[in-house]
Hints:
The chain is α+β, with helices and mostly antiparallel strands.
Amino acid sequence: xxxxxxxxxxxxxxxxxxxxxxxxxxxxxxxxxxxxxxxxxxxxxxxxxxxxxxxxxxxxxxxxxxxxxxxxxxxxxxxxxxxxxxxxxxxxxxxxxxxxxxxxxxxxxxxxxxxxxxxxxxxxxxxxxxxxxxxxxxxxxxxxxxxxxxxxxx
Length: 154
């Protein structure tokens, strides 16, 4: 019954290389069959629904861009994951298998112009309930943060 909610969009494996930046997160996401993406985003590290502000730039030469970024900013680390992406209404459901960490789900509610952050939180909580995701299941931070904590023994 629940599977009727989902419309599969794609699945793919892609590494993302994170760079050292003073605030937010900057990553270069490598894709094989389409343009790679440089992505900068900011969001709080709280668990649960949160607003994310992101900016994308496509590139056909990710290796060249990666070399320039590495020289200018250094490398923070790399996240390798396989993602299955589904749409449920206006929510992207990311099902991720992250190397070295395990399996995760992320809900990304795409707000319409007339919707508030509160509207998005309600949509996310309703879908969490349908999927059986509890508050205790939620984590703060990003995969890169979890990888760093694991590497540092935290």
